[in-house]
Amino acid sequence: MGADMRMQEPVSLKAEMTGAELLIEALKKENVEVLFGYPGGAVLPLYDKLYDSGLFHVLAKHEQGGIHAAEGYARVSGKPGVVIATSGPGATNIVTGLADAMIDSLPLVVFTGQVASTVIGSDAFQEADVLGITMPITKYSYQVRDPKDFPRIVKEAFHIATTGRPGPVLIDIPKDMNTAIAQMEEDEPLNLPGYQPTYEPNAFQVRKLLDAIESAKKPVILAGAGVLHARANQELLEFAEKYELPVIHTLLGLGGFPFDHKLSLGWAGMHGNYTANMAIYESDLLISIGARFDDRVTGNLNHFAPNATVAHIDIDPAEIGKNVPTKIPIVGDAKAVLQELLAQQGKKGDYTEWFACLRERQIENPLWYEESKDDLKPQKVIEMVHEITNGDAIVTTDVGQHQMWAAQFYPFKKPNRLVTSGGLGTMGFGLPAAIGAQLAEKDTTVVAFLGDGGFQMTLQELGVIRELNLPVKVIILNNKSLGMVRQWQEIFYEERYSHSLIPNQPNIVKLAEAYDIKGYEASTEEEAAKVLQEAFSHDEPAVLNIHIAPGENVYPMVAPGKGLHEMVGVKP
Ligand SMILES: Cc1ncc(C[n+]2csc(CCOP(=O)(O)OP(=O)(O)O)c2C)c(N)n1
After folding, report:
1. Ligand 1 touching residue 401 (CB < 6 A)
2. Closest CA to 178 of 59, 57, 84
3. In 3-state terms, what secondary structure has residue 533?
4. What range(s) does the Thiamine pyrophosphate enzyme central domain occupy (predicted)?
5. Is the CB of 425 inside a 6 Å radius of any atom of ligand 1?
6. Which of 175, 123, 119, 167 is nearest to 147 (CA)?
7. Coil vs helix vs strand at 12
8. Cα(562) to centroid(ligand 1), Å
9. What is the pLDDT of residues 2-50, one digit of tens each?
């Protein structure tokens, strides 16, 4: 990779420093490896100090690209993604990324420029009330009012972003705060009495769950992204094996449990698999770990796990009982809770009949697609990529049909290999997220599965891939339509394809070549095999435009308003 992260210089302390200098020192103290940003008037004093700071800064092509790259970096590395945007339009361009990170609990520390404090409220050039705009989509936000506060604010921001339920923290910096002089002060310990996330669970509630496990006949674990955030996959494995509990994932939780383990049932939800959805529907004990019962997972709540005692383990107490009535609430960090579950004595129940039923469904009703001699099936392409990469790649996706197919047909052995926009469903996410993912793990193969629609929302970030020489393989599953919209129009709107078919496409190979990236094209299985082989044989970036069967739909499916047991398109 061309862009090695430069060694950071030792922190030097002067008695008096400018606000921007204090900020740079604070970032170094947090061991920031990379910043994703875009300059402009209000952040020029900060960029001036960045110039010879030794910090590694990635210049995005659009602020949205920068913040999605930071999300990809955060998802894979577990460290906070750091973003800088200028005031006004720079800041408003990151709003989607903030909302995305908030709903998917990704740790970000985001700096926005602001007009000088003397003109705030005067509709000054490039002024926007960024705190007002972003308050509901940030975990916390600050506006710097005194340059001496920089060290404290940065320290708190990194702490808040990464602890408890992770999320984005925004720091708005009026321009004059960068140049104002402040006295360097003693490093104060963190003092946030109002922010004390609960990590350790209540032992009594844990006991109740162990008792419920002993008496259950049809237990299941629903493992969400909280398991990944807490780096608790090992504990989950031990717990599931100790009590012989089947494990189902949410989309964002994929990789928290090895897909090929005998206790793994795959993922549940709108396009999850039949066995997983029916297991939830029929279960008598549902143990949710770090999942928030999103409607894409639950389907119609009136039919969700109707016979189950629900145990909900979550670090965010606001999640418990929010969507699903909960009998056994356990507030705590997934790792700490699983450790306590493993520490206490417990007995497993007799689940023989339950497993017999689950096994039969796994054999009778697996994920499937109809193979075709004439058409190139997207599922087949994903399986080919899985094989070529030995299932070890980091996969980023955009949003739409290809996202669901990737999650269905690229199973994961390890955590934090899937980088996808789950909660917000943000088109334009996948390509920039791949940049951050590759920077987080420079020796791992990164594949970005995109639709032709989403690719065109942030394709300018190909420029960053080229400049940093990141060997990302961009695979466009091109159905010449906004496929997921087309699918819904086919099924729910009597095939009235209002503004979802895109027969006129840009020449994607030429687009790639314009960025000096090798482009490939394939329309048949043989061609796909050949171009994939070629693209994965070198360490350069590549863009593959794969023409897939345009009418292919994602199945099985829980239609909106239906229960998980009412899936259609299950393998007959
Ligand atoms: C920013 C944004 N705008 C609109 C949507 C609504 N939407 C969801 S999926 C989809 C179609 C995506 O098409 P494409 O990128 O070609 O992927 P495909 O579904 O064909 O795989 C649309 C428009 C969205 N999720 N995000």
Report:
1. yes
2. 84
3. helix
4. 206-341
5. yes
6. 175
7. coil
8. 22
9. 444 444 444 555 579 999 999 999 999 999 999 999 999 999 999 999 9
